[in-house]
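Many introductory courses stop at the sequence. We go one step further.
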Amino acid sequence: MAKFKSEDLLNDLKTDVERIAEAARFFQSVDKNKMVYAPKDGKWSIVQILEHLNAYGRYYLPAIEASLSEKKTEKAAWFNSGFLGDYFTRSMKPNNVYEVKNKMKAMKAYTFSNSLNIDTVMKEFNEQQEKLLKLLDTAQYVDLNDIKIPITLTKMVKLKLGDTFRFLIAHEQRHMIQARNTLNIVGIKTDQFPVLIQVIA
């Protein structure tokens, strides 16, 4: 399994979230009509993508916060990824800055209609990124191996805190690339859209 120096992992994840937050700020300048335009049947609009991410944040962020406050652990210098956590993260994380190649079908509970309030959705998304950064800061004082978080599918399966952060942020990167590509489809230039991932050759 993957092994990380805990401090380096948390710093890298914070950088990832900062890039995601910067990408969200890009949407502030986009025509709202474009934000709700679905390119074709079965494809999500930008606002549907963001609400999908919000829904995951509504589950994982409170779960992480509760676990951080409830279980006291000593800081560990190294994080050893679990088998499932590493598998889920690698399956989710994009390895190409321009497209997402391995398509996945979202659970029905995490799909939304296109009749959403854009400002409400974007406000929540921005607030979630701020919360995520704060949780990453708090996590530097605990053992990322010892704290476990149940996944959305079943509370019977739990991921280590380090893997939960990795998976959640990889999921955001994946869908923000999808959102950037949707902007291109609806005619919005994205040359100033931030690079969301660093691909190491």
